[in-house]
Automatic annotation (TrEMBL):
It holds the Pfam family PEP-CTERM. Residues 149-173 form the Ice-binding protein C-terminal domain. InterPro entries: Ice-binding_C. This is Ice-binding protein C-terminal domain-containing protein. It comes from the Bacteria.
Length: 178
């Protein structure tokens, strides 16, 4: 994993996508989605940006597919948000959810409730497969969002090396004049 990212900023962007798609998820729950499998293409996600989608299912097992491209390598985050309660009753619930990400980098994890899942990603095309079972009285709905990696700019490394060399030269000159 890269250490030079602003994890808080990535998490905030992912949560913003979740908030923005929350209304769509509530509408999807109310509409009783009928598909047991769905596919979403999130397109190309530029560094420091996010994209997401909402899936809704009637009760039963499902397999969903998400495709996306990222243009730079680094640490990205997938977020997952499962909607549980509506009007004080479990109306929408998903259990046994699992994500498998394939592409230049592979990643698999169980999805347990809401969460952010950081992963080191190489630039390229990815396919995410989400499986699970909708068990609420209205089935289940969830949000899937991905925040593209924040690459380490090559110029930052060069600048740091230049500053170190300048400091070394200045120190050497100071010692020589003393």
């Amino acid at each position: 994993m890269l250490e030079l990212i602003d994890g808080g900023a990535i998490a905030m962007r992912a949560l913003k996508v979740i908030r923005n798609t929350g209304v769509a998820a509530a509408l999807a729950i109310a509409a009783h989605g009928t598909a047991s499998a769905a596919t979403a293409d999130l397109g190309t996600i530029a560094p420091n940006s996010s994209a997401g989608t909402v899936f809704a299912h009637t009760p039963g097992s499902f397999t969903d597919t998400v495709t996306f491209n990222i243009t730079a390598s680094g640490t990205g985050e997938a977020s997952y948000y499962n909607f549980y309660v509506l009007s004080g009753k479990v109306r929408s619930n998903i259990v046994d959810a699992f994500l498998t990400l394939t592409g230049p980098t592979s990643f698999s994890t169980a999805l347990t409730g809401a969460g952010l899942y950081p992963v080191s990603l190489l630039a390229g095309s990815y396919t995410g497969t989400i499986t699970g079972k909708a068990t609420g009285s209205d089935g289940g709905a969830y949000n899937f969002a991905i925040t593209a990696p924040t690459p380490e700019p090559a110029t930052m490394g060069m600048m740091a090396a230049g500053m170190a060399m300048s400091g070394f030269v200045a120190r050497r000159r100071k010692k020589a004049s003393a």
